[in-house]
Amino acid sequence: MLHGRRKLSLIGLNVFCIAVILLLCFLRGMADHADRNIDQSTYTTLPPDESPEDPLLYLSPEFQVAEGFYSNMPIVILEVDGEMPDYKRFESSQEYLTGEEPYTTGTVSIIDGGGYDNHITDSPSVVSSLQIKKRGHTSYMFDKEQYLLKLTGQDGEANAVDVMGMGAHDSWILNGSMADKSMLRNYLSYRISSEVSPVTPDSRFCEVIFKKDGKYIYQGLYLMMETVARDKNRVDIDEFKKKNIYTSYIVRRDRFTHFDLMLDTYGRLNGLSEEWIGLKYPSERKLTAKARRFIEEDFSRIEQVLYSEDEGVFRTYGRYIDTDTFVDYFLLNEYFGNYDAGMHSTYMYKNSGEKLKIGPVWDFDQAMNNYFQDEMDPDTMAFQERPFFRQLAQDRHFVELLQTRYAKLRRDTLSDGHVKNVMDEAAAYIRSARVREWYRWAADYYEGDHLNYRNYYLEDYVLDGTVVSRFNDRYDQEIYTIRVYLEKHGKAIATQLKNLEKMCVWDTSYRSENKLMLLFIMVLFLVPSVLIIRKG
Predict the structure, then answer these.
(1) CA–CA separation, 505 vs 374, rounded Å?
(2) What pTM did the predictor assign?
(3) Strand 75-80 versus strand 70-71 pairing type
(4) What are phi and psi of 219, to 5 degrees?
(5) List of residues 6+ apart from 225 with CB closer than 8 A
(6) Which helix (H) or strand (E) covers residue 301, if one does?
(7) What DSSP letter does each residue of 229-294 carry, written as one string?
(8) CA–CA separation, 302 vs 321, rounded Å?
């Protein structure tokens, strides 16, 4: 009788241990991928522009602004000391090595009374000296320029200012790409992404005017945007200190440029990536040789795992990257059809002692069926072909995380209704400004009867023997293009993720680990039990 009780007690203990261990594995998986929707965005509801006046009332045919000019959004006035240099020439090694900077000095004044009736004669809420340069890659060729602003004090040092409620900083971008005639693609993407990722850049619509020789010249509708920088309001990582063994860092996958320090990492050195990894933080001016070596070795270690063809090595990637940020980055860029991401303007950051995170998202002006060479097929998916994601998409566990997360986002943040509401709200807000924008720049798309190839255009294509034009000359057509693409593509992604799962070759999920663990537990506990029972 004693032996029987002993047998039952031992078996019961084994069963209990197995149940506890499996429960812990389940809870571990749940905790790692708990619901993480956030809403730390500083975006507020945009009221519709209900101005009864002609939007062009205060603009001359030469785009000079009359004294009565007003806007329902902030007005940014730029006074620049001379011409801005062609910063593209600074990408050549000879120009870069001279130490000359592609900046011009000047002054910026921002009229933002916090309301929605700003006049050009109002007292500005922000006045600062600045250094300004042109920016952009493809957009750099366009007639409408984009700018990087560095606010400075009287001593020439950085002047951190709270601009339009986005937090104090000295570095800002005026984004206004001619590639996007809707003027909504970047704003919509950043606004929606801010509900998912806390490092998404804040942005605000504004109208930009140049002041020269006492005259005000209208420049167009822009987004005032945060840059990608280490800051508590931007990418919140530890400050670089030379004495520390480990250092936090921000890197960017992109084309080669002399403006960033190009790192020698495993992927590049072994021909696994055509793009370069450039260091954004710490700056090259502050960086030590020891810190550079640490960053290169640390990032290379991550690349070695992600690029590995050894399943035992690859399955450890969760120890090195924050998988949740990679899931969200994939889904946000795929949803908006932003296929330049992953290869170019792809930011990643790592805080001391933490995993590598990817983001913030960046640059959506060619997204949402706005790529000049090809019409985007909304029924297909392509982000799984981007660096790092090409490897991750072979893992069933990662694809399952994509499916679960996408199903959640489609119920709220990426639902057709929510995205439509944000679009409609923004379109109503820029109602007058977009008329002025098209008046200012629409003629630059043509030279006589021909497209102006200096500016962005969408190439025609042949369908069933008929030439299909992709040129929109009506604003409602541009909005319709975006809306149709998002609705069709948003619906197709779920199906495409299922197809992607069928092509997976690995499975690093806790489920597969649990099978091995269960087998181990059975050997560890049940075999001794059998021996004891036999002896009994």
Answers:
(1) 31
(2) 0.87
(3) unpaired
(4) -105, -30
(5) 172, 173, 174, 175, 186, 190, 201, 202, 203, 204
(6) helix 289-306
(7) -BSTTSB--PPP-TT-SS--EEEEEES--SSSEEP--HHHHTTS-SSEEEEEES-TTT--HHHHHH
(8) 8
Angle between helices 416-429 and 475-502 in degrees, nearest 10: 150
pLDDT band at 258 (very low <50, low <70, confident <90, very high): confident
Buried b (16+ CB within 10 A) or exposed e, 233-251: ebbebeebeeeeeebbbbb
Neighbours of 69 (CB within 10 A): 20
Could you tell me the two tokens for 288?
A: 């030590």
Q: State which amino acid sits at residue 180.
A: D
Q: Which residues, including other chains, have CB under 8 Å from residue 114's CB and lie 6 or more apart? A: 125
Per-residue pLDDT tens over the stretch 271-281 = 998 899 999 99
Q: What is the pLDDT of residue 202?
A: 97
Paired residues of 222 in beta bridges: 206
pLDDT band at 7 (very low <50, low <70, confident <90, very high): low
Angle between helices 323-335 and 396-411 (to 10 degrees): 60
Position with higher pLDDT, 280 vs 93: 280
The share of the chain scoring above pLDDT 70, in percent, equals 78
- Residue 154 one-letter amino acid: Q
Tell me how far apart the alpha carbons of residues 134 and 103 are, in angstroms, rounded to a whole number: 8
Q: Give me the residue label for tokens 């000047």.
A: 106
Over the stretch 322-339, which tens digit does the pLDDT of each residue have?
999 999 999 999 999 999
